[in-house]
Specification:
It is a single chain. This protein is α/β, with parallel strands linked by helices and 343 residues long. It has a domain of 215 residues: Rossmann fold. Helix content is 39%, strand content 16%. Strand 2, helix 2 and strand 3 form a beta-alpha-beta unit. Helix 1 runs parallel beside helix 2.
């Protein structure tokens, strides 16, 4: 029986490249499609260093009008699609909302058109906990109604999920869909041959911590220390990128082996235990022995006091459990930061 071939859109990105490693190690053939707008093909060199396999990247902007025909024209049949390709900066999306609606919605439609052309049986969508919006429910679980979200980025994730639900509910529905809602991916591959290499200055907490520790930034600001939390700082859920990547393989397997009953399922992907910003900083200092230069600043508008996942559904349905904790995340993120900084 021939190996199943998976198209990974946005596969040169942080999460996409780690997922490609997991797919190859699970026995899949993989083709990448990435415009390289916010990434580069160096990540595929890391994939090869870990797996010994070369992955071809189809350089194409999925939001372009010709993207569907261009990818179909490659003559490769795709048994599954994992759709990562999207613009992802929350702050940038507030400033440039039209770019985000145009890119993220069009890219989704292109990926679905490709799936329809090939009769692809499994489609996995890279979603986000931002779909829950300004909720005060803790922990958040998958059946919560979507609330107003403070960014165009979050709204595009909500819209993309609604597109998937509408397609799955249509009488012509073919194949099945899983939407994975991430809670703050961080860390690096445990080989330290692959990790997060943002082209633009990162805004997420963990890479900001490692860049501060290594001297790329003078200091780190903790935004708000007067929240009703354990130490006054915001609580967030994190997930190691390798735990995240593994969940995509489990999602594909669930569909391809006929285990998924519903046409559409959504799963939270987080450790399920929130940590405060200060606890994350202390975890970094503990595992690395490096003191971090940080200061306390005012709250940022739109920040929720706390957000963390109820991950029981993915545990029950896909038998997924996080294998790494916040200290593991910090340890691997720091090791990767030193590798990519040449130290």
């Amino acid at each position: 029986m021939s190996k199943k071939t998976i198209l990974v859109t946005g596969g040169c990105g942080y999460i996409g490249s780690h997922t490609i490693v997991e797919l190859l190690q699970a026995g899949f053939e993989v083709v990448c499609a990435d415009s390289l707008i916010n990434s580069d093909e160096d990540s595929l060199c890391g994939v090869k260093a870990i797996t010994g396999r070369t992955v071809h990247n189809i350089k194409v902007d999925l939001a372009a009008d010709h993207a569907t025909s261009y990818i179909i024209g490659q003559g490769i049949h795709f048994d599954g699609i994992i759709h990562f390709a999207a613009l992802k900066s929350v702050n940038e999306s507030v400033v440039e909302p039209l770019s985000y609606y145009s890119n993220n919605i069009k890219s989704m439609i292109t990926a679905l058109e490709i799936a329809r052309h090939f009769g692809t049986e499994a489609f996995v969508f890279s979603s986000s906990c931002t779909v829950y919006g300004q909720t005060d429910q803790l922990p958040v679980y998958e059946d919560l109604p979507f609330m107003l979200t403070g960014s165009a980025y979050g709204r595009t994730k909500q819209m993309c999920e609604q597109i998937l639900i509408d397609l799955c509910n249509s009488p012509n529905a073919k194949g099945k869909v899983i939407s994975l809602r991430y809670f703050n991916p961080a860390g690096a591959h445990t080989s330290h041959l692959l990790g997060e290499s943002p082209i633009n200055p990162p805004l997420n907490l963990v890479p900001v911590i490692t860049e501060t520790a290594i001297g790329k930034r003078e200091s780190l600001t903790v935004y708000g220390n007067d929240y009703d939390t354990r130490d006054g700082t915001c609580i967030r859920d994190f997930i190691h990128v390798m735990d995240l990547a593994r969940a995509h393989v489990l999602a594909l397997d669930s569909i391809m082996k006929g285990h998924q009953k519903n046409n559409f399922e959504a799963y939270n992907l987080g450790i399920g235990k929130g940590v405060t910003v200060l606890e994350a900083i202390y975890a970094f200092e503990k595992v690395t022995g490096v003191s971090l230069n940080y200061s306390l600043g005012p709250r940022r508008e739109g920040d929720l006091p706390a957000m963390f996942a109820d991950n029981r559904k993915i545990s029950q349905h896909l038998h997924w459990q996080p294998q790494f904790n916040i200290e593991d995340i910090m340890r691997d993120a720091w090791a990767w930061e030193k590798v990519r900084s040449g130290k």
